[in-house]
């Protein structure tokens, strides 16, 4: 014999309240939603029928009345008293397009805040009015009722402890939050909270008024005046809305919550994943008919359509940016000043954005700030450093040698520069290595160099323990006494060496596998054009040469923003004290 499942209503309500809904406040949304659906259903069969939804609360009893389709007694048994049964699905069980509800569980949320729910309803067919009283213990009763108009009134009395959800201001706030964009007039205590539709609706408002309404909405809702308002439209998802471009820099890691309405009812104030990750400079408010909610109606269901929407919205924001470049470069420059990170992230994958960055985003170069486009026009190829440290180290020397260099050390800049040949295949893009700068520094006159051999030998002896080669060159700017040049590989090898010295045996053995013979030792380049260096070169006492070269080494490290290892610190200390010792006259004890 087949038996029927029994449902323990208390258990189900407990499940909803603890595991489905984030807060009991959703009860008002579900009631509002049922009222809207009932009005929609009635107007489908009776187009001129009144459309009004009125909410009233005494502080402990809440009443919501609609002029909707109503229910007959038979429907009350079938729909109100059967969990999971909904009139809003078609014969195949699919959610019917025109309705907000679909799951057949929404009314149960009333039991999150009330022990008893009364529904007083009269169907549009003229069937007699019915009163249904459902209780949280899973029982219900039905009685004949007295109601002249078609429609439904739902009455909830607060359960002890849930009264705060029935307070007038709370009810007003919740009804406004969830329902402010609903297409039908909704009142709370006689005060209208909805009925105009979304602020981006197309209507007879003058364009200026419409924009002012949109900006006002951002100010009221998000507390900022947007940099710009971008209209959004994705027909395949029945989606319309706006993206507000943030007037301040946004943290890419912190997702801006988007406000999502489904069929004009608020789904969430903090939707994630509506825009592509790079578009963190915009915050959206959208209404969509075709996107699906999760059962809690508090988040979007992540399906293929959402993915399509994400792409389409990304394309619209991108289009706005490209349009700005064409029509209002000054404004684009201001936008880039605030949101360059997002645009740069986009340029990594998108050629149009790459072109936009190339043309409009000024970068730091050793010839002043300029766009990559300007840089290319002036200097042909693009030389860049991949770190800001390399740039600081090389900028002045490179410009004195006529080498133009872009600082590629900021987020995404190197990757963007390396991608530029996608725009112009003939473009030569080259990472500048300190070694290349070295080859541009003029050697000394052979005669002079020969005379300085003894000095160089003494200097090299002082630097040997640091694995650094001392070189003499003559270069501009003459004010620069010394340069410490270290290529990437050499820098890596020197860090490896330092780590290895500190690591235990096993780990040191592992690190040793990465060590290579040092082909490019770091170089300490003394500038013979510098007056102080020339005086140091004239020193003959090996100890004094050692101290002076060590001091120059320390200065070069500091000037180039190189890390100071413990060995360097010890050497600097010794050299400083040694020089001080030499500079200060000996105490005369006699
Ligand atoms: N105000 C109302 N007027 C007319 N019918 C209603 C009203 N409220 C509820 N109903 C009927 O009761 C059914 C069950 O409502 P319930 O809120 O539980 O689920 P739903 O709205 O169908 O789906 P969801 O769980 O997605 O909200 C509805 O499908 C509708 O037929």
From TrEMBL:
Keywords: ATP-binding, Chaperone, Nucleotide-binding. ATP binds at residues 30, 34, 66, 152. It comes from the Bacteria. Transmembrane segments: none annotated. Gene3D superfamilies: 3.30.230.80, Histidine kinase-like ATPase, C-terminal domain. GO terms for molecular function: ATP binding; ATP hydrolysis activity; ATP-dependent protein folding chaperone; unfolded protein binding. Belongs to the heat shock protein 90 family. NCBIfam families: PRK14083.1. This is Molecular chaperone HtpG. It comes from Crossiella cryophila. The lineage of its organism: Bacteria, Bacillati, Actinomycetota, Actinomycetes, Pseudonocardiales.
